[in-house]
Write a structure and sequence with these properties.
Helix content is 19%, strand content 27%. By secondary structure, it is an alpha/beta fold. It has two domains: 137 residues, no CATH class; 279 residues, no CATH class. Strands 7, 8, 9, 13, 15, 16, 17, 18, 20, 24, 26 and 28 form a twelve-stranded mixed sheet that branches. Strands 3, 4, 5, 6, 29 and 30 form a six-stranded antiparallel sheet that branches. A hairpin with a 5-residue loop joins strand 16 and strand 17.
Length: 495
């Protein structure tokens, strides 16, 4: 200690020393109280934290079950057999196709919380297995932490929506917490595609080399005008004995299929009829002519405004310019555009583009003077391509090998009766819909459906579009688009 400090200590008032000691003792006392208070609060907060955790787990279980209900709508193979038919589209008519809503816009789900359309109750052994067998329907991320007690699906609480889903779940801790989650579902309304090929005008012309360039497997061909073929044998014969394979017709001994029907608004012309049979030889029984105006060739109409709105919300939107470049909705006037190959190429199986809506040059309803031409020269495209204009198909390579399921045998809708098939050389996996004409510069294989507002033409003899119909389209199941979705603002934790 230096001399100055020693002197200061010697001259400090004894009373001041007492005050310092008292302050130190008081500080120690206060710190002790604070420590004990913290320990007490921590001990009291433990049950509160645990309760919050249990509440969160119960809500996650209920929310997870609601997600599974949505998956049932999208993938019927996951739906419990006992309720599968209740989730099918049961409204609609022959003109509009299947729908969840009647002509007045009312949902097919009409039940209430007390009397739901669908009820699964864990008190029932079969229902309990469906709800809580984690290897079966519901995800096992939270397996062992809780149980689903009850699941209800009933009518919507808001007009225009599809249904209400209500799920009650509980934790299995020593102090179980029970919670109920309620939400409402909306439906994306795109009309089902009920035929492999649909053409709004005449297909083919009665002249050498003018035959129809379209071949169909597994579904119907519908033509509003006339149909011209080279030979009677080019019309696919419907036969229950036809093999179910991925072979093209040029690989088969006979041109036959189990599901193909022709619905022709006008007549069928044969360019090279059999000798001695004249210009109108007998046609196979699966060829139906003079269907327009009565009883009518039922073509599926995809409304311009509705599809545009759906694409802007759920899919991808482009505007097509005069030189065939694509422009996103937010593109500026100086934007140079994107090539169709860069925008639409799918690199591998599963690289799905969803709904791609390609608008007219001026973004208005398609007319003769505002429809551009899209050149689709991708090796492989997977998605729903809706072009408000003309399309040139020019695949640059051999396509991809795609797994597919055939339709069920007629008279049954059993998923197990559908035959798994590997389709080779597929260039379009989905739906190709053009408001104008589809021009084939090279042969193209399609798994899904082909729709042309005008017609389909080919650049040369032997250039064809061969289409294998995806029967899931008949139920309005479009990959890359939600069948149903959570309606915003409808989620509610009831109790």
């Amino acid at each position: 200690m230096c001399m100055e400090e020693r002197r200061a200590s010697e001259f400090m008032n004894p009373c001041d020393k007492g005050h310092v000691l008292l302050a130190a003792l008081f500080l120690i006392f206060m710190l002790g109280i604070a420590g004990m208070t913290s320990l007490y609060l921590a001990d009291q907060d433990g049950p509160g934290v645990s309760a919050m955790r249990e509440d969160n787990v119960a809500q996650q279980f209920a929310d997870g079950a609601a997600e599974i209900v949505m998956r049932w709508f999208h993938d019927p193979s996951t739906t419990p057999i006992m309720i599968a038919g209740l989730l099918d589209k049961r409204q609609g008519d022959l003109e509009s196709g299947p729908s969840f809503f009647d002509v007045a816009g009312r949902s097919q789900f009409v039940g209430t919380a007390d009397r739901p359309d669908i009820l699964l109750d864990a008190a029932n052994e079969v229902d309990n297995q469906t709800l809580n067998d984690w290897s079966n329907s519901f995800p096992n991320a939270l397996g062992g932490l809780g149980r689903i007690l009850k699941l209800k699906v009933y009518g919507p609480l808001q007009p225009g929506l599809l249904s209400t889903v209500e799920v009650t779940a509980t934790t299995v801790d020593r102090r179980p917490v029970r919670r109920t989650v309620q939400l409402q579902l909306g439906a994306v309304s795109i009309p089902a595609v009920r035929a492999a090929v649909q053409v709004g005008q005449t297909l083919g012309a009665l002249q050498p080399g003018g035959e129809s360039p379209v071949l169909v497997h597994w579904g119907d061909q519908r033509v509003l005008g006339d149909l011209a073929v080279q030979r009677v044998e080019d019309l696919v014969l419907k036969s229950t004995a036809a093999p179910v394979t991925g072979q093209s017709y040029d690989q088969m001994v006979y041109t036959q299929d189990r599901w193909t029907e022709y619905w022709i608004g006008g007549t069928v012309s044969v360019i090279s009829p059999p000798p001695g049979q004249g210009a109108n030889p007998p046609l196979p029984e699966n060829v139906h002519v003079h269907q327009y105006p009565m009883p009518g060739v039922r073509l599926d109409r995809w409304d311009y405004d509705s599809l545009k709105k759906i694409a802007l919300r759920w899919g991808t939107y482009y505007r097509l310019d005069r030189v065939g470049q694509l422009h996103p909705q937010v593109a500026s006037d100086s934007d140079q555009g994107i090539t169709p190959t860069d925008a639409l190429e799918s690199q591998v199986i599963g690289d799905h583009h969803g709904l791609v809506f390609i608008d007219t040059v001026d973004g208005q309803l398609p007319r003769v003077d505002n429809m551009g031409t899209l050149v689709l020269d991708t090796d492989y495209f997977e998605g729903l391509l809706v072009v408000q204009g003309h399309v040139v198909l020019r695949p640059r390579a051999t396509g991809k090998s795609v797994p597919a399921l055939s339709p069920s045998p007629e008279g049954t809708n059993s998923l197990g009766a559908r035959v798994p098939v590997q389709l080779s050389g597929i260039h379009v996996n989905g739906v190709l819909c053009a408001a104008g004409t589809i021009m084939l510069e090279r042969s193209t294989h399609i798994f899904g459906a082909l729709i042309a507002g005008n017609t389909v033409t080919a650049a040369g003899a032997g250039t064809v579009a061969e289409v294998w119909y995806n029967v899931d389209l008949a139920q309005g199941l479009f990959r890359g688009l939600p069948v149903v979705y959570r309606a915003p603002g409808t989620w509610l934790a009831k109790y």
